[in-house]
Amino acid sequence: MAVDIPDDLIETYRKAERVVVLTGAGVSAESGVPTFREAQSGLWAQYDPRELATPQAFVRNPRLVWEWYAWRRELIQRARPNLAHYALVDLEQATPHFLLITQNIDGFHWLAGSRDMLELHGNIARTKCFDEGHRVDGWPQSDEIPPRCPRCRSLLRPDVVWFGEGIPEHALRAAFEATRQCQVFMAIGTSAVVQPAAQLPLLAKRAGARIIEINPEQTAISLLADWSLRGSAAQVLPALVRALGFPTTAIDGARQSETAQGRDT
Ligand code: BJW
After folding, report:
1. How far is the centre of ligand 1, averaged over its atoms, from the C-alpha of 102 (Å)?
2. Can you give the CATH number for the domain in which 48 is found?
3. Contact criterion met (CB below 8 Å) for 159 and 176
4. Residue 34 CA to ligand 1 centre (angstroms)
5. Residue where a domain terminates, one of 113, 144, 160
6. Ligand 1 atom 10: the closest Cα is on which residue?
7. Average pLDDT, stretch 54-68?
């Protein structure tokens, strides 16, 4: 698919000193990780978030919640970053000040090589305890599900942010600060309905940034975006890096390693 990147977008991006990118589940869709709100394939079409992604749900049925996240953790462990993740690494390398803010918990941006980044909703690979929030790397073997914290004996849970819970304070503060200062704000693969992340594009717009959206579908962001690039992140982002004339080191590396392993990225 040929992706048309407007000339004025290219000119604006090249001039920008500070770029902030907000990613959502759509960025990992082509890695085989389901999104949340898409009508047929989204997780919330099949599962009720109130029964799985709230502290109340965990108190009601900790085993169900633990096992649902164990299933998703395995799914993510079997998947790998796609060209969208690698293209964002190339953008970070070529942009003077670049901050990637992700709502995703899969850790794929880090795995691909992004370094200046914030995980707003935590990371499914980490575990903490429910009562005290102790981060836990391992626990004694037991038949109990979920297992218990070796320090305080409370139940263990994934280190992700559920509905009704606060975003880690340092991450939220840094996200707002960078958003207020950027000249270009990109929203990629997010429906932008979950707060407080959904405020970021609006805040960027009010502060004078130009907004680029990458999403196959229209979203609330489309109304305020200067450019909406309709297509999948794994197609549009590599095309954007090339159109900007930036080195494609991470993209090429990913392609080469996929070819060597006989797979398509
Ligand atoms: C592609 C693609 C491709 C497909 N390429 N694109 C103010 C007003 C109203 C409510 C609230 C409010 N403030 C807070 C709330 C409550 C709540 C909230 O926002 N609710 C809304 C639903 C209304 N927020 C919270 O509770 C937050 N906490 C908080 O604010 O604390 C203070 C507070 C609490 C309570 C009241 C008031 C203040 C915490 C939110 C935590 C969200 N957690 C989850 C689960 C994480 C763990 C897990 O994974 O299980 O995070 S929910 C889920 O949604 C997940 C995601 O990170 C998040 C965002 O979803 P995302 O990424 O946008 O995915 P989708 O599926 O929605 O969209 C995918 C997009 O990709 C689509 O647009 C596709 O078209 C596109 N796409 N393929 C590019 N190939």
Report:
1. 11
2. 3.30.1600.10
3. no
4. 14
5. 160
6. 195
7. 97
